[in-house]
Amino acid sequence: MPFSLSVRHCVLLATLALAAATPVAHAQITIDLSYVDTQSAQYQRFKDWVDQAVAGNPGYAFSASEAATMYKLTGQTQYADLAIDMVDDQVSAAEAAIAGGNRPEVAGDSYLHVGAMIGDLALTLDWCKTRISTNQQTRWAAYAEQAVWNVWNPTQAQWGGNAFPWSGWSINDPANNYYYSFLQATMYWALASNTGNWDSLLNTKWQALASYMGSVQGGGSEEGTGYGLSHARVFELYRVWRDATGTNFATQNSHLNDSIAWWIHATVPTFAKTAAIGDQSRVSEPVIYDYHRNLMLQARAMASTQQRRDNASWWLNNIPIQQMTSGFNLHNDLLPAGSSGTPPSELVYYAPTTGHVFARTGWDRNAMWMAFTAGKFDQSHAHQEQGAFTLFEGDWLAVTSNIWTHSGIQAGTETNNMLRFVKNGAIIPQQRNTTSSMTVTPGSGGNVHIVANLTPAYKNNPAIVNWQRTLDFAQRSLTVQDDFTLGSGTSAVFQVNVPVQPIINGQTARAGNLLIEVIEPANANFSILDWSTQPGDTWHQGWRLDISGSSSRYRVRLGSVNPIFADGFEVSNP
Length: 574
Known about the structure:
This protein is an alpha+beta fold. Helices cover 33% and strands 20% of the residues. The chain is built from 14 helices and 22 strands. A hairpin with a 4-residue loop joins strand 3 (348-351) and strand 4 (356-360). The radius of gyration is 26 Å and the shape is globular.
């Protein structure tokens, strides 16, 4: 081998040799692929994708797991041999790095990709084992065992006897997307290795995940709609573990079923986008993509009620992504989307733990839709958006300006539709590890009355003694009232971020199809910020309307240019 084995590695290999002769009951990755329709267009697209790789032209991000899956489906050895070659290349590259006194690629970015990389190795080892040499099996096992061990023992992590400690980021945080990668690597390796080395720890980590997901009332993710897509991996792991062991963590709480509803309600009426909650680092505007389709396919496959499966099918059959657009996602399209389905019965949805309310006037594409946030704020990818609202009809009417940035990670209060508190010229930020609260009273036709206590988001800062926001969504308009008490030297500004430049006329403003009327105070001050002029990031569009002039209350009504809203709301058309 290209690198010398430590004493621990020698013991490990002896353990592996003993385990090979003493299998345990669960030591097999027995993913049930009976759902695959080999006569379908989805299957043919996936087969063509893998055949392209067999021919020596793998597409972007092609994985060994995809080749191993085709081998499992067809029994044709060219697919197994490709998977084996790819995994052996991964291990050989790791061995070379370790021999040079470095850490291998699998350790990069705090082991973020360990799930996919060790998952490839484990699935290939398990499904293609008869074509893998003894020497390869031994080398792969030493590498995989060390990788998984390093994940859960960050201060003692090593490669080739050299210490490579790391931060241990999120190894005990089942709300974080990294945790899902760590669980995937451990689960796949535990099933494929048949050593029993990881049974106790794996059980602990599974139980921690199940306990956490059970605490997330209403579904969704505390990481928002960008990083919340990582739950697709969780739902897939549920399925793999169920097929391998018979234990179904998806049915131990309502999170998966609730998340189907959460994501459907978080989708705007045109089906083209979702609510912009938290970091949006892949693309700044949360447009529907393969990852959203995959999340719903995975959730539908494990849903425990026919109602939620029907809801998932309805959503899948209405979004613009009717098949995966990127080759590396084609294998997910093998999961069935179901027939036409039905939308959820409710028009208002409240998820208490993530602190999100979604409401719409109907399930038609012309409906008006709103979102509001007031809840737990503790994840690194979450934003300072406690008290923020979004309004949509045909397109964004009012939305966080983060969606128009290059980075997609502008997280401050200044980018959201909320009150901005300022003292001595500095914006007062919201604080993590806080929990705001609200009461939600749904009415008919998507109407909803919300009263939120947002004071906790500022963690006892004397500059903000109290902030309560009341929202009334009805008759295709949103009325927002803020009641607040400020400390000495503090001011509050009501801000609305819009896609086009607002035009001000007295106590009203118009930004494209959005009408804004200030009811209180009677003599409000208006100012406009062009985001494209701001330093620190690149805004390709977006404006912010700032309303000031009150020390205790703002009352503002927002809606689209239509007869219902315009009645009693005098707005000139420049």
